[in-house]
Amino acid sequence: MKKINSLFLSALIFGGLAIGSCTKETPKEQPEVKKEDTTGGGGSGGVTFLAPTTKMKRVALLEDFTGVRCGFCPDGHVRAKAIADANPGKFIIMAVHGGSFAAPQTGWANFTSKYGASLISFAKVSGYPAGTISRTLCSELGVTPQIAGGYAMSRGSWGLAASKIFEMDAPVNIGATATFDEATRKLTIKVDLYYTAAETKENRINVALLQNGIMSRQSGAPDPNNYEQNHVLRDLVTGLWGEVITEEKKEGAKISKTFTYDVPEDYNGAVIPPGGGKVVIKDLKLVVFVAQGQNNILNAIEIAVK
């Protein structure tokens, strides 16, 4: 994607340009931190504990609702990248292909997952591209929702909403590693959580598998027949709404989890189109986040696969 000068980026991020939207047809990784040796005391079974133990601010997670036949969606991708570039390590992008502009159609790639429809319904999306920021209500972030009482907002609001998340204290810190076994195609994800403040509400841990660098046809792109799709949600390892954390979430609590996932050869078919393409291990990323139930993401990190 071509570089854009800083003044233009600022205008994009904070909504200085007029916003267009597709009509809905139907109703950088976390900064490196010092790791703590927890031998003999909680953590990952007596090995290096992965989560930082000092108080931190939240990392914002954008769920970018997009589609290959959405003409305005490439502009959303540009805006999201600009925010991420301006806030390294503080802003994570997850591209959720869903809705009418992403539905399988002859001649187009199928990047949909079984979770898209549910996430779109939850967010209250009315047009594309749309996005949620850390699954926090728009009213709490000082931006206008697409639908009253919703989480989804237009792309011109993403930067402002993210800036509100950056100011919030994170009650939980996250550290994680992911290792792929070529012989078995098994992915092992180890996650450590450290609570810097007590949490009385239900917390859920979520692990999302994303893929970068997938070439496809894309409406609205400078070269619509040769467009690089990034941050594509391939699967949710922990299911639609994550796994409930049953351990006590008091201040100072250390919680460790291990997840395994069998990585398929492709998603929706290896050939693009009509499928979603082969899995390229070096292009995979994992996003780990903790939410209060289904909403209000408390913190997030993105890691590469080893």
Concise synopsis of the structure shown:
The chain is of the alpha+beta class and 306 residues long.
Task: Describe it.
Helix content is 14%, strand content 33%. It is an alpha+beta fold. The protein has a single domain (36-304), classed as Sandwich (Immunoglobulin-like). Strands 13, 16, 17, 19 and 20 form a five-stranded antiparallel beta sheet that branches. Strands 6-5-8-9 form a four-stranded mixed beta sheet, sandwiched between helices. Strand 19 (284-292) and strand 20 (295-304) form a beta hairpin. Helix 1 packs across helix 2. The radius of gyration is 19 Å and the shape is globular. The model is unreliable at 1-20 and 23-45 (pLDDT under 50).
Task: Please specify the SSE layout and strand pairing.
Blueprint: H1 6-13, E1 22-23, E2 36-37, E3 48-49, E4 56-57, E5 60-66, H2 73-86, E6 91-97, H3 116-123, E7 127-128, E8 130-133, H4 138-141, E9 153-154, H5 158-166, E10 169-170, E11 172-181, E12 186-195, E13 204-211, E14 214-216, E15 227-229, E16 232-236, E17 243-244, E18 254-262, E19 284-292, E20 295-304
Parallel strand pairs: 5-6
Antiparallel strand pairs: 1-7, 2-3, 4-10, 5-8, 8-9, 11-12, 12-18, 13-16, 13-17, 13-19, 14-15, 19-20
Helix pairs in contact: 1-2
* Strands, count: 20
Q: What's the gyration radius in Å?
A: 19 Å
Mean pLDDT comes to 89
Structural class: alpha+beta
Number of discrete domains: 1
Number of helices: 5
Distance between the termini: 26 Å
Query: Mind telling me the CATH superfamily name?
Result: Immunoglobulins
Q: From the structure provided, what is the oligomeric state, counting identical versus distinct chains?
A: single chain
In sequence order, what are the helices and strands, one letter per element?
HEEEEEHEHEEHEHEEEEEEEEEEE
**CATH C-level category:** Mainly Beta
The CATH level-2 architecture is identified as Sandwich
What characteristic shape results from the CA principal axes? globular
Helix content: 10-25%
CATH topology: Immunoglobulin-like
Name the beta content range.
25-35%
Sheet with most strands: 5 strands, antiparallel
Low-confidence stretches: 1-20, 23-45
